């Protein structure tokens, strides 16, 4: 089946939904969701949105904090562009009906690690969910938006793949995960908003949908990808056998939470003068160091010195979830470990969210705008989603109308049903385990080379499997994860220094000049490469 739209948006998190709502006033939009609109990494965000909303704060201070956290690798123009548009982005969400938490002076602003002021507007400790639910209700009522849930993009359709003498995106092949049919979705403009790649690691705070799909597709199409070595490990993921990927928000430390060893002693002041308010990379490495040095399964985050009603008001979700597991945070410390949290690198884009391929845009965690540098400052991610969703929509609305070339249907005539799907499960498990062991918080060249050798073997197996059998949801995700893991390793091997989130024992010093790690693969011809 072939369907045609003005704009195709791959991914239904905050960036995808915000762009869709802005475009739907005058464009016919298709919005692709791997599961339902409610299932995205954006909805898991607890902290909030960082923006200058207080007269005691300033644009310059937010920029300074962002660049300091980013280890001075940030792009100055992109950083200023995002932060100067912060208030407008938040005002837009308020206009859509997002019920941000208030206090006596207006909206309550939290302070998080790496910030020099209170500037994080939030909805208690479920900001992402509240924002997502608000926009989802608007999306479902918008007649110009066709929502395709339980659909996953297989690959982009480019002029190169169609054998045309052009470098342009014309849509994508998309698998209906329920029926098994691969649809051909044509569009003059396509926005990748498919999120990051946290599931490439064994332990992550991300949902199962974070498999690097957008990054891998853009890479295969010929886009530049940059700074993939900078994977942010959130310092405080709940450590409990019954808890899967449950994040303990940065705001807990921002409101006075203390990190403790099992004997009740603090350790962060020994690692950084900012203590628990140091940026995430510093805190994650400190926890990793203490756990390995002492043979610990976890450390502890204690906020029990705060009044119970304060915790119930500011952290109701964390309080309730911990109580379900027998942990009363009003009286007990929370067991925590670091976990893969955010992909700071991604598909290179400009300030209009354009990639190297005409008609192809990117926004959100799949992008590398230059805002985050070598480490994302807490709560800058949802802000980036909003600002670049608007930038992409504005640029798309200025583009002249054009006709699509003939788009071939997906050819499944030469493939058969898979005979050993257990291969997918085994490869998935192997990939995530060696990425955790060899490409984690602390790296060595030897570990990275071992991981690269394993990746090459896995890639060959998966390419062979992909060439001979019908595509499935799991196979598509595994194929994308292997590509994304390879990009992380390639970039890590190229960086001969320690900077931000990339810490190498072989190169522990930081070089005087901060440079991006940029890689590119030329696309191959053929409708289904």
UniProtKB/TrEMBL annotation:
FAD-dependent oxidoreductase 2 FAD-binding domain boundaries: 6-382
Keyword Oxidoreductase listed: yes
Entry keyword Flavoprotein: yes
First-level EC class: oxidoreductase
Reported cofactor(s): FAD
EC numbers for this chain: 1.4.3.16
Location in or out of the cell: Cytoplasm
A Pfam short name: FAD_binding_2
Gene Ontology MF annotations: L-aspartate oxidase activity
Reaction equation(s) it catalyzes: L-aspartate + O2 = iminosuccinate + H2O2
Domain Fumarate reductase/succinate dehydrogenase flavoprotein-like C-terminal stretches: 429-509
Pathway: Cofactor biosynthesis; NAD(+) biosynthesis; iminoaspartate from L-aspartate (oxidase route): step 1/1
Principal subcellular localization: cytoplasm
InterPro entries: FAD-dep_OxRdtase_2_FAD-bd (IPR003953), FAD/NAD-bd_sf (IPR036188), Fum_R/Succ_DH_flav-like_C_sf (IPR037099), Fum_Rdtase/Succ_DH_flav-like_C (IPR015939), NadB (IPR005288), Succ_DH/fumarate_Rdtase_cat_sf (IPR027477)
Annotated GO biological process: 'de novo' NAD+ biosynthetic process from L-aspartate
GO cellular component: cytoplasm
Family: Belongs to the FAD-dependent oxidoreductase 2 family. NadB subfamily.
Protein name (database record): L-aspartate oxidase
Source species: Candidatus Accumulibacter proximus
């Amino acid at each position: 089946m072939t369907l045609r739209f003005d704009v195709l948006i791959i991914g239904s998190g905050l960036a995808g939904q915000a762009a869709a709502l802005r475009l739907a006033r005058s464009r016919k939009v298709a919005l692709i969701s791997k599961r339902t609109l409610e299932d995205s990494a954006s909805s898991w965000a607890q902290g909030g949105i960082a923006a200058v909303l207080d007269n005691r704060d300033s644009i310059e201070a937010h920029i300074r904090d962002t660049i300091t956290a980013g280890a001075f690798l940030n792009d100055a123009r992109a950083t200023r562009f995002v932060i100067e548009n912060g208030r407008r982005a938040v005002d837009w969400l308020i206009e859509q009906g997002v019920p941000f938490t208030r206090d006596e002076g207006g909206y309550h602003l939290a302070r998080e690690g790496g910030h020099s002021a209170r500037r994080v507007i939030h909805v208690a400790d479920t900001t992402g969910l509240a924002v997502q639910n608000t926009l989802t209700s608007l999306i479902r009522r918008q007649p110009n938006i066709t929502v395709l849930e339980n659909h996953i993009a297989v690959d982009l359709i480019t002029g190169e793949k169609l054998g045309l003498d052009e470098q342009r995106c014309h849509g994508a092949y998309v698998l209906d995960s329920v029926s098994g049919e691969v649809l051909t979705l044509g569009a003059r403009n396509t926005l990748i908003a498919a999120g990051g790649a946290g599931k490439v690691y064994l332990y992550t705070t991300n949902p199962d949908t974070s498999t690097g799909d957008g990054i891998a597709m853009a890479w295969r199409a010929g886009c530049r990808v940059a700074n993939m070595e900078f994977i942010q490990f959130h310092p405080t993921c709940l450590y409990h056998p019954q808890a899967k990927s449950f994040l303990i928000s940065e705001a807990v430390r921002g409101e006075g939470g203390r990190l403790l060893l099992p004997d009740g002693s603090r350790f962060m002041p020994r690692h950084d003068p900012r203590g628990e308010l140091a940026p995430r990379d510093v805190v994650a490495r400190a926890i990793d160091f203490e756990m390995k040095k002492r043979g610990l399964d976890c450390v502890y985050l204690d906020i029990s010195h705060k009044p119970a009603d304060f915790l119930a008001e500011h952290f109701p979700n964390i309080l309730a979830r911990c109580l379900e597991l027998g942990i009363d945070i009003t009286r007990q410390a929370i067991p925590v470990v670091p976990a893969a949290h955010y992909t700071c690198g991604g598909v290179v884009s400009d300030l209009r969210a354009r990639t190297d391929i005409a008609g192809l845009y990117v926004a959100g965690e799949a992008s590398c705008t230059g805002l985050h540098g070598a480490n994302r400052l807490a709560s800058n991610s949802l802000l980036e989603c909003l600002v670049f969703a608007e930038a992409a929509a504005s640029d798309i609305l200025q583009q002249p109308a054009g006709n699509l070339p003939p788009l071939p249907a997906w050819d499944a005539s030469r493939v058969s049903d898979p005979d050993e799907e257990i291969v997918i499960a085994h490869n998935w498990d192997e990939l995530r385990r060696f990425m955790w062991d060899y490409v984690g918080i602390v790296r060595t060249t030897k570990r990275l080379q071992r991981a690269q050798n394993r990746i090459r073997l896995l890639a060959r197996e998966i390419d062979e499997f992909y060439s001979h059998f019908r595509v499935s949801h799991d196979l598509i995700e595994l194929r994308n994860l292997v590509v994304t893991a390879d990009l992380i390793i390639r970039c890590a091997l190229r960086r001969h220094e320690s900077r931000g989130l990339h810490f190498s024992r072989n190169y522990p010093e930081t070089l005087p000049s901060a440079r991006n790690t940029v890689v590119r693969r030329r696309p191959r011809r053929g409708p289904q490469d």
